[in-house]
Amino acid sequence: MKKIVDDLRLIYKICCLYYEDDMKQQEISDYLGVSRATVSRMLQMGKEKGLIKIEVINPVKFSYGKLEKTLEKKYGLKDVIIVEGTALDTKEESSTRLYEEAAIYLAESFREGEHIGVSMGYTLHNVAMAKVKFSIDKQLKFVPLIGGVSHGTEAGADVQSNQIAKEFADKFGGTYTQFLAPAVFSKRTTLDYFLQEESVNFIFDEFKKLSTIVMGIGIPERTESTLIRAKYTSIAEMDEFVKMGAVGDVSLQFFDEYGDREKFKHFNERVAAIPFEIANTVPRRIGIAAGAKKAKAVKSAIAGKFINILITNIDCGNALL
């Protein structure tokens, strides 16, 4: 005798009752006189036999959902946000949209009472300056990930980490603390002694409370390096890093195409920054970068486990494929 679960007519009827008439599985069971388990199995068979097609509608105005999911799977990321763009966008328009969408994402994802680490640079400064406003009633605390003492402003903007922490607190609500140390020391021994001071080493307690960090991703280019403009490193030193295989940096830490920082230890170990054995355990590590030329640095930052959430644009997203 033909099994009841093989009856296509009955499978179709159950699917119609469930999806079109909004009946619950138990109601269908009582109505047709079959077990609830049978109803559940037949609904599954309806999917397998192609009787049911479920379409998920992207609620946002741009449709990069498939690319986002592909990149999440390819690189093992928790989340990817691709910002809308068109071929007619100027560089300024594209950048503005990136900063605004990044700010919106951050505002929606920051949780009440959260401790959030921020790095330095123009990307985070521009996110904080984006022309979008939010309710700032969340009790957030922003913590600079690297020392914030610098030579001053660059092109009228102060992009060192202490200032970024303040700007994020102003933008998203809450308070901030300061990491009152030079970003880069001349010697590792000097850095070690300095960080033993009570007026400074409290920052390590703050690091351990972080649940989110937000970083820009730099590339070692003379013309676009904030590190050179802010005098954290020199052109000659940057050229040497490139020869050694540097493809990018996060929080003043250089890394190669595999996300390895060891080649650049002579510089990295002199940076007053969150230890990476702490940073890499923070649950949400958000990197913001755009443009096809940033793709290699982004890919390597993922390989080094510096980031697990990416906010980028379509050009970088396509290049990452």
Which features would summarize this protein structure in a list?
about 325 residues, elongated, 16 helices, Arc Repressor Mutant, subunit A, seven-stranded parallel beta sheet, about 40% helix, Rossmann fold, alpha/beta, two-stranded antiparallel sheet
Sequence of strands across the biggest β-sheet: 1-9-8-5-2-3-4
Under CATH, the topology of the largest domain can be stated as Rossmann fold
Query: How many helices does DSSP assign?
Result: 16
Indicate the CATH architecture of the largest domain: 3-Layer(aba) Sandwich
Fraction of residues in helix: 40-55%
Task: Provide the residue-averaged pLDDT.
Answer: 88
Structural class: alpha/beta
Proportion in β-strands: 5-15%
Q: Which residues form runs of ≥5 with pLDDT under 50?
A: none
Q: How would you spell out the order of helices and strands?
A: HHHHEHEHEHEHHHEHHEEHHEHEH
Tell me, briefly, the overall form.
elongated
The first-level CATH class name of the largest domain: Alpha Beta
Number of strands: 9
Q: Mind telling me the C-alpha Rg?
A: 25 Å
Number of domains: 2
Distance between the termini: 52 Å
The major pleated sheet works out as: 7 strands, parallel
Describe this structure in words.
This protein has 321 residues and is of the alpha/beta class. The chain has two domains: 4-48, Orthogonal Bundle (Arc Repressor Mutant, subunit A); 65-320, Rossmann fold (3-Layer(aba) Sandwich). 42% of the residues lie in helices and 11% in strands. It has helices spanning 8-20, 25-32, 36-48, 65-75, 91-109, 122-128, 161-172, 188-194, 198-201, 203-207, 226-229, 235-243, 265-268, 276-279, 295-303, 314-320; strands spanning 79-83, 115-118, 141-144, 175-176, 212-216, 248-250, 253-255, 284-288, 309-313. Strand 8, helix 15 (295-303) and strand 9 (309-313) form a beta-alpha-beta unit. The longest helix has 19 residues, at 91-109. It is elongated. It starts with 7 loop residues before the first helix and ends with a helix.
